[in-house]
Amino acid sequence: MKEIVLQKFAEIYGDTEGAQVYFAPGRVNMIGEHTDYNGGHVFPCALTIGTYGVARKRRDRKLRFYSMNFERIGVLESSLDNISPDPWADWTNYPKGIIWAFGEKGMEIPTGLDILLSGNIPNGSGLSSSASVEVLTGFILRDLFGFDVSNQELALIGQYSENHFNGVNCGIMDQFAIAMGKKGHAIFLDTADLSYEYAPIQLENAKIVIACSNKKRGLGDSKYNERRSECEEALAELQKVCHISSLGELTEEEFEQHRGSIDSEVRQRRAKHAVYENRRTIQAVQALKSNDVTAFGQLMNASHVSLRDDYEVTGVELDTLVEEAWKVEGVIGSRMTGAGFGGCTVSIVKEEAIDDFITRVGAAYQDRIGYAADFYVVEIGDGPCKL
Q1: 382 belongs to the catalytic site
Q2: How far apart are the C-alpha atoms of 117 and 374, rounded to whole Å?
Q3: What are phi and psi of 40, to 5 degrees?
Q4: Which residue in 36, 174, 190, 319 is the catalytic one?
Q5: What are 11-57's pLDDT values in tens digits?
């Protein structure tokens, strides 16, 4: 892949003199959905698919961006002297947001850049192609300009950029999972204080299979921000009777004791999901540590039901993929992953059942939805690197 992106860089920008090649992964969250902005736990892992980038410094203030995934757009130009969100800037608002965020954190970028990206994360899949681009850009800036920032700080800069430049009120999970990825491990992250531990994913004779619904979604125009504000309102109502700073601090019993203080039935369900999903995530990691993959799978299934019924972020596409997966023998667990409203499901499938799983779930999905889903048998990879 390194040779392919370098060759394209030379074709677009004339030569490869001074160009460096980088990679940042995508991520999948095994369990712990919509908990990251509610002070709860998440359990994501980095993937071996992700975003490749070629970059070099310029002598002027010009920024030039090209994506092999959006070749019809061509080269998009900007300037360090005019960094602001622009709908006409398309995907380049993500790397531009990181350049802006570095400046906001006191790390001014002194010269322009030529950048080429190529990702093999399905666009709009919910596997965090945007966060992958953000972490990759931060990694490039650190390497090319010698900034003293840790990978964890790169994750926080990515979140800051997405919140304040791109206008998506996302939590920290996506950027953290990508920046801090470790091969063969998922990250058990407490989003309240960013304490974390690596937990080995040992799936005896089973693999992680991602099914992409191919229903495109954009976080900014989805109901993501609406769900977040519903949880914030529910938290404010609970704080009148509980001394808590986030929903993630509550046990299921404490929530049931005080749920009546939430004035709306809808907000009660939103808060219930946040509380119960957080406890499921803690239980799921304990199950993995005990080599109880079956219990882990059952918690994945319960997570999807909660996301469907209490949080209402699944939709017919994701529900079809999951409900058909549950019917296949050899499926240990299956759930939607990511923000929802389209995107992907993640399933743990016994190796001998993978072909049957893809055939049967794919056929049922095509029959009901009218277009095909794509399936990826994935491996857990490391964080960003220079190639």
Answers
A1: no
A2: 22
A3: -110, -170
A4: 174
A5: 999 999 999 999 999 999 999 999 989 999 999 999 999 999 999 99
